[in-house]
Here is the input.
Amino acid sequence: MAYSDKVLDHYENPRNVGAMDSEEGSVGTGMVGAPACGDVMRLQIKVSDDGIIEDAKFKTYGCGSAIASSSLVTEWVKGKTLDEASEIKNTAIAEELALPPVKIHCSVLAEDAIKAAVNDYKKKQGSQES
Amino acid sequence: MKRPIYLDYAATTPVDPRVVEKMTECLSMEGNFGNPASRSHSYGWQAEQAVETARKQVADLINADPREIVWTSGATESDNLAIKGAAHFYGKKGKHIITSKVEHKAVLDTCRQLEREGYEVTYLDPQSNGIVTADQVKGAIREDTIVVSIMHVNNEIGTINDIAAIGELTRENKIIFHVDAAQSAGKIEIDMQAMKVDLLSLSAHKVYGPKGMGALYVRRKPRIRLEAQMHGGGHERGMRSGTLPTHQIVGMGEAFRIAKEEMVEENQRLLTLRQRLWDGLVGLEEVHINGDPELRVSGNLNVSLAFVEGESLLMALKDVAVSSGSACTSASLEPSYVLRALGLADELAHSSIRFAIGRFTTEEEVDRVIETTCEGVKKLRELSPLWDMFKDGIDLSTVEWAAH
Here is the structure.
C-alpha cells in the first residue's frame, strides 16, 4: 500500500516519542487499543496549573498510519486547553494525513487516546481536590 | 531506481532464464506456435510433441506416469477441479470432506462452496507447530467421508505434513486423498509410486516457471474419476477442456526438469542462507519461529518479532520485499488465519514476517536484510508501549485492553 508523504514523514521522524511519569499529578495518560487488534496507543499529556497542555508524549504499537496519527496529535494538543484538545476530531486527523478508508480506525484511536488522557488527568485532579 | 531485495519466493518466483528461452521458442512466427490439438499438419504435431515432452518432465519430478498429468491454469484451478470434481463424481457415496484450517484459500473456499451444495466439511486444527497429523485425520473419518484434502507444505509457515502416512489411511478406508503441493514441488521429494496420494495440485510459478500454469496429477491405478469443471473440446481426456498453451506448458516442463536436477544442491544452499538469516535475527530478543523449526522447507523462515506490528515493520523493510501475517487493512483487523490456527497470541500473530529465500538470493542480500530488520525492530520497539510494558515485567495477557 502506498502511504501519503505526511504519514511517511511522521513514521520516519516521529515527534514527541517518550514516556512521562504517569504517577505525577500534572500528567494524564491515555492507553487505547489492544494487541489483538494490532494497535495500542499510549498518549501522555502534561498540564500546567492554568489548564494548558504544556507537553505531550506518545508510544504506539501499530501500523504506520497509527504511528503517524498519534505522532500528529502530540503536536496538535500542545498549547491547547483540555477542552480544546478534547474537540480534536478523527476526521481532521484523517484529512491531515490523507488516510485511506481502511485506515480511518487509526485516526479514531488517536482521538480516543486524547480523550482518555484528558479524562485520566481530570480524574486525578478530582481525586486530589476531594 | 534500485529494486528491493526479493525475499518473497513463496508468493511467486521469477521465471528462470533457461525457462524463458524455451518458452519464447513457442511464441514466434518461426517458432513452435501451432495448436497441439491440430491433427492435420506438422505445426500441430510439433506443438503436441513439445507438450508431451513437458508432461513427461512434470511427471518425472513426482515419479508419476505422464498420462496422470492434466494441464490446468494453476494450482487454484487444480484444487477446484480435484475437490469439486471428486466430490461431485463420488457424491452418491457420501457427502463428507475432511480438510484443515490452514489450507490455502483455493481449498478452503472450494470446500465452502461444496458446503453450500449440501456437503459437510470437517476443518482440522493443526498442532501448535503447524502440522496436521494422520491421527487427526483418522479421528475425523466417518462412514460417509469421500475426500480428504491436506496440503503438503504450508504456504505461510513452510511446514511439511506427512502425506505418505495420511495416504495409507485414506487408501485403507477407500477415501480419495487430494494434496495441494504448490509449495512443495521442487522443494522436497514427492514420489507418487510410493505415496498413496490420489490427486495432487501443482503450480508452475512457485518453481521458477510462468504464472497462469499448473497441473493436476490424477491417479490411474486405482483409477480416480473426476467430474470436469470446464467443458469444451474434450482436451486432457475430457477432464479439462481448453486449447493447450504450448509456451506455458513448455515453461512448466523446463522449470520442473531443472527443479529435479538441482533440488538437492539448491536445498543445501537455501538451508545455509536461512541459517545465516536466523543467526542474524536471533540476537534480537523475543524472536519466535512460527511453525515447526525442523519439519519445514529450506527456503521458509516465518518469525514473529514480538512487540513490533508487522505492517509497520514492512515499512521499515521498504528495501526488502517480504510478506507479513498481519493485515491491518480490514475493518476486522484480523491477522493471518494460519497463525491464528496455530494458537499464536494475537500480538505475535500481528508481529509476523515471512522471509522466503529462493534460487537467486545471495549471501550479501541476506546480510543486508539482517541489518535493516534489526535496525527497524530496534526503532519500532523504542516506539512500542508494549515493549515498555514487557521491559517493566508486565504480562500483557493480564492487562485489560479496550478492544475496538
The mean pLDDT of chain A is 93. Chain A touches chain B at residues 1, 3, 8, 11, 14, 17, 19, 31-42, 59-64, 66-67, 102-103, 105, 108-109, 112 (CB under 8 Å). The two ends of chain A are 51 Å apart (CA to CA).
